[in-house]
Specification:
By secondary structure, the chain is mainly α. 87% of the residues lie in helices and 1% in strands. The N terminus is likely disordered.
Length: 429
Amino acid sequence: MFFHKKNEDFKIDNYSVNVYYSPPKRYEKQLAILELTVEDLKYLTLFRSDVDQQIDVITETFYKGIMQEQSLIDMISQNSSVNRLKETLKVHITEMFSGQLDENYFEKRKKIAKVHVKIGLKTKWYIAAFQQLLLHLIRMVNSELVYREQRHKTIEAITKIFNLEQQVVLEEYEAFMDALKAEIEEGKMKVGSTVIQSSTDLASISERTNASYHELMLQSDEVKTYTIKAMDISFNATDEAQIGKEKISFQLNNMNTIHQSVELITDEICKLEELTQQMESIMGIVTNIANKTNMLALNASIEASRAGAAGNGFSVVANEVRKLAEQTKDSTITVEGLLVNTRQRMQYLIEASGEIKEAVELGTTRMKETTQQFDVVVNALLECKDQNDLVKEKMDCMTDVIALLGKSFEEVTHAADSLVSISHHLKPS
């Protein structure tokens, strides 16, 4: 620190300080508006010794304020450390009072500004932090410098250099935001174009799908009509099958009756055969009696002849008896022939009744099998009827779903049109 008497005038030219003022041309207008001159750099350089002496206090004071905001603490923890940033800040502040303002100075500031942007430091915290640092340096100036002119010029120089720092940083923020905005606009254009194309494709697909939907509706109606016809046919077939089953049952009952009748006829024929056999036995006896009677009549005639006139009457009777015996024998032979013929007819009848019985039994078996088949057919038709009922129910549900689907297609088409309209607004005018 320089000590002078308070009543002496302060002249900056009385002090030998080295400054290098060679800013890039693109900053000349900013520097002109700020009125940041070589003289300001001299005042900053002259104050550097005080800054160097209190640089630790300056950085501690700066970070004491920073550590009051939790978001800044989290940001520092994620990207660096407080001690490392303190060292960086010391160099940064020292360079502000180095008396050099050239391309390298600005490039370092821009680099630091890009880091601030990259880590997401908000401008309000950046400006607030530098404001706090500025106030601390102004207090130092008022405390350490004796001459009012020097204090005034030094504060002006500090304010200018701080303002320049903020301009460089904010310019980088603006450049970043412009680049981000351009990127967003480009993204919006790409999204808009993509959405328009997708919406157009969606609308086209929706139209084709809607056409398919109408075709599906027509086919659904046809299927439903066919299903109803199938149900009617199933009903009629079930009724006809039931009638057929009843007729088969009736015929089966008739076959059972015929079978029973054939059984009765067979039994009666068997009984008649027994009677025929009995008649044949009786006819044998009668034949035997006729033979014996004929023999007796012949003997009686012989004896009557021997008796002479007394035996004439008895001879007549014996002749008559013999004639009767012969007639009886002839009748017996005729009856026996009839019985033989009857037995033959009865045998034929027994054989025919057996064939009829077998045919009836076979017919009954086939009738039973046919009845079973009709039961299968009737059950199948009933199951088919149940399935047709279920198909009709499902078709009704499908018709409702298709109708709902058609409504959804209309909503999709409307949404696609709305999306196209919105997408056009995404494009910059």
